[in-house]
Amino acid sequence: MARDLVHQAVKKALVKDDWLITDDPYTISFGGVNMAVDLGAEKLIAATKDNQKIAVEIKSFLEKSSAISEFHTALGQFINYRAVIKRKEPERVLFLAVPDFTYDTFFSLEFPQLMIRENQLKLIIFEPNKEIIISWIN
């Protein structure tokens, strides 16, 4: 499964969940730095629902051997994006979207769980093949 397909799966899952995709990618600038997710690997999507605005950072975690490395990257991006969004568009909430198989395996380990709590990560768990959202974790 290519990362591009994971991106499309999340996008379709959000649409199925009655979200309107407004930006693909969602770009934001602060302090001379422009931020957006790497093309083809993962992108930031912005969506609006019932006056709720979200930004979604998508991570595939396809390489099992580098799950911790991808987790470090995802956590760093999440913290950076959240800080800027909070200042520029405080009504928008940032979520990290991860596949259900990643959540059930790597994300269930003690260290990722500690980091999720410590850093107050908001998660969207999705099923990539069915293109549906399994759960929202606040």
Please describe what this structure looks like.
The chain has 138 residues and is α/β, with parallel strands linked by helices. The protein has one domain: Trna Endonuclease, Chain: A, domain 1 (3-Layer(aba) Sandwich), CATH 3.40.1350. The protein has helices spanning 3-16, 67-88, 100-104, 110-118, and strands spanning 20-23, 28-30, 33-35, 44-49, 52-58, 92-99, 123-127, 132-137. The strands form two sheets. It has a six-stranded mixed beta sheet with strand order 1-4-5-6-7-8, with helices on both faces. The protein has a two-stranded antiparallel ribbon with strand order 2-3. The longest helix is centred in the middle third of the chain and has 22 residues, at 67-88. It is globular. The model is unreliable at 37-43 (pLDDT under 50).
